[in-house]
Each structure stands twice: as C-alpha cells, then as structure tokens.
Amino acid sequence: MNLMKKKIFALCGSTRANSANLQLLKAIATLSANEFEIEIYDQLAALPHFNPDRDNETPPELVTTLREKIKACDGVLICTPEYVFSLPGSLKNAIEWTVSTTLFSHKPTAIITASGLGEQAHASLQLIMSTLEADMTEHTQLHISGVRNKVNADGGIMDKSTLNKINELIKSLSGLIKEK
Fold first, then answer.
1. What is the pLDDT of residue 1?
2. Domain membership flag for residue 1
3. In terms of CB atoms within 10 Å, which of 28, 45, 92, 142 comes out highest?
4. How far apart are CA 51 and CA 124, in angstroms?
C-alpha cells in the first residue's frame, strides 16, 4: 500500500470568505486526510480576466502558477455554487485560462455543485470538464441542492446522505488516481 498522500488541487467556485463551498472543501480535506493532501486555491478572485491575447508563451504570473498547480497535482476537486443558473464568473474565468492547454486532459477530477438549487451550474460544469477531457465518472460528480441545510458554518456535514455521497466521491476520486 502506498503511504504517500495524493496531492489534490481544489478550486472553490465561491470567493466569499466563509462560503458553504469552502466549508465543504475543508470538510473533504478532513475526511480524506489519511489519503489526500488537499490544497485549496485562494487566488481565484485575483486572476486577471481571461484574454486570448494574453494567453501566449508568457501569460500573467498568476495564470502560470494556476497551471503549474494543476499540472503538478494527482487530481483536481472543484466545488462551486450556482449563480443565476450558471457557474460563478471567477471559476469560469480560471477554467478558461486552461483551455489552450491539455492540463485537464485525463486528469482525475471530481466536481461538486453545492447551492440552493444548482442543476444548471452542475450541467454546465459537467459539459465544460468533459469538453476539456477531465477524467470523471458518475461517482466523482456530486450535486448537493439545499446546501445550507446540509452543511453548517463550521463545515460540519449535518446530512447523513450527503456525508455518505461525499465519502463515495472521495473513494471514487482515489480510485481514478490509482488507475493512473
């Protein structure tokens, strides 16, 4: 058995300081601490707006750093809310900075949409990540509606069904990584 923890790079679609999505990522980091070392990216709001003219051999420094982190990790975990039936602009912007690369191609990836509703954002994220050829299965994709009733402000997962689904997602992401 490999005792080295797998490196997971996590993107939180919400830039709010104590969002439910950030709390979920922290809870997942705790739940998976024996297996994963999760780095939660904290520069999402600082990334420059995507501009194809700047997506060249010398992209902005924050973009280069983002790309290096995705390249170096064993897997990616994205957790996002839904804003006006879509992905938050800051998350979409970060993903757009990777479109000219193959960083997500065959990269083990888990996606979570956690919001009041979230169906539209989840479908959009599934389409985007599939287009980028991220390695996902139905078990590494989770839609959590009514998140405020399922996760408390301290990151505690209050809903047993949600906790079980998160544990299944962790197990499935681990399986994808081991297949590589």
1. 46
2. no
3. 28
4. 21
